[in-house]
Write a structure and sequence with these properties.
This protein is of the alpha+beta class. 30% of the residues lie in helices and 30% in strands. The protein has eleven helices and 23 strands. The two termini are 21 Å apart.
């Protein structure tokens, strides 16, 4: 991609109406643009990062269920059937010009459960699971945390259906391990955290990342690393770790990046989703759900991976692998050599399927370096008068302080793997 053609302009200063670090960084660097409070446009750079996050999630989730896509617009009747039409505090409730009432989906139990009823007849149909990556809507009172808490956001939600609680428990544990793999691939250290199970179960599990600006408060066992959300925590002196039994706790601010729930029969009972067991008796299906906010993950990664100069994207989710930065000379002949070398590297890497951004703008070295730091692509490839005369490029990692030179031919071989 050519930097001059990106549908976004980098800003010199933080937007005045953004309080959160993730929104300030991502807005300045041209990844997102606020449409209104809690709602963002994802610009070309931001869209690339979001797609990479979601593809990593897909790679893990495909082993657990089939991907589907359910509607955002949901019938009021389904929400009344579960008793959540009035109880769900952040539900967007809509009335059409024809007097029909709908909900904008904040979650999809009210849709996926009656859908599963048509597919599940006997124990032979179980277990079964489906997931989606889709836009959700929640009427949050305060939406001042950028991508960490929006009114419109993207989420991966997986729903599983089982013949027994034991089968759910096995599946639940496998998804828990898959979540840990996903967060590791995204460059995040996730802490498994016990939390309230709401009306579904005694407790659920959240995956939290320690973050100074995090809206959650967790207590981490200093022996085994298990954590508890403040909402179910009594005191550091009396609370025993459910994993190791110790009472040594460390308090941290944190941000949730995923959650998993044992739903039991709450929704299958509401929609009368039953199956015939091996003895021909009707039984209620046992359910679980597993959520992960993909836009929220992008915000958390931005909050975790940055310095005073801008973003520092982990390799797996960076918008590009290489940022080619030619420093154009005032000497016409040298400028042509620099341009030719930059285009050669750019086209060669592209043909090899390597993602690369070329800064083709006619800007000063200071502006180019500052913008490159702000965008945060992992590897910078600089061409200047000094390097081109030696048929070399300067290579610098975004998170590294020192740079090194390499022959262009050697660099192209190295980049190709």
């Amino acid at each position: 991609m050519l930097q001059s053609k990106i549908f976004a302009k980098l800003a010199k200063e933080d937007p005045k109406d953004e309080q959160s670090l993730n929104a300030r960084l991502l807005s300045r660097a041209g990844f997102i643009e606020k449409a209104m409070a809690g709602v963002y446009n994802f610009l070309p750079l931001g869209s690339r990062v979001l797609h990479k996050i979601e593809n990593i999630i897909r790679q893990e989730m495909d082993a657990f269920g089939s991907e589907i896509l359910m509607p955002s617009l949901q019938p009021k009747e389904n929400w009344e059937q579960t008793g959540r039409w009035k109880e769900f505090d952040v539900l967007f409730r809509l009335k059409s010009m024809h007097a029909f009432e709908y909900a904008l989906g904040p979650t999809h139990e009210e849709i996926v459960t009656p859908l599963a009823k048509k597919a599940i007849m006997s124990y032979r149909d179980l277990p079964v699971a489906v997931y989606q990556i889709q836009t959700k809507f929640r009427d949050e009172l305060r939406a001042k945390s950028g991508l960490l808490r929006g009114r419109e956001f993207r989420m991966k939600d997986l729903y599983s259906f089982h013949a027994s609680q034991d089968d759910l428990e096995k599946y639940y544990s496998e998804v828990q391990r898959a979540y840990s793999r996903i967060f590791e691939r995204l460059g995040l250290r996730a802490i498994l955290t016990e939390a309230s199970g709401g009306s579904f179960a005694k407790y659920s599990h959240e995956f939290q990342v320690v973050l100074p600006s995090g809206e959650d408060e967790i207590f981490i066992c200093e022996k085994c690393g298990l954590a508890k959300n403040k909402e179910i925590f009594s005191s550091p002196e009396t609370e025993k770790c459910s994993n190791c039994g110790q009472t040594s706790w460390k308090r941290e601010n944190a941000s949730e990046i995923g959650n998993i729930f044992r739903l039991g029969t709450k929704f299958s009972s509401a929609f009368n989703v039953k199956f015939l067991d091996s003895e021909g008796k009707e039984q209620l299906v046992v359910m679980g759900c597993y959520g992960m906010g993909t836009t929220r993950l992008m915000g958390v990664i931005a909050e975790m991976h940055n310095d005073e100069n801008g973003l520092i994207w982990p390799q797996n989710v960076a918008p590009f692998e290489y940022h080619i930065v030619p420093l154009f000379s005032k000497d016409a002949d040298l400028r042509k050599k620099i341009e030719a070398a930059a285009w050669k590297i750019f086209s060669t890497l592209q043909k090899q399927g390597i993602e690369v951004l070329l800064d083709d703008r006619d800007e000063s070295p200071g502006v180019k370096f500052k913008d490159a730091d702000l965008i945060g692509i992992p590897k910078r490839v600089v061409l200047s008068e000094k390097t081109v005369e030696k048929d070399e490029v300067e290579i610098k990692g975004r998170a590294e302080s020192k740079a090194g030179n390499m022959k262009i031919s050697d660099f192209l071989k190295h980049a190709a793997g």
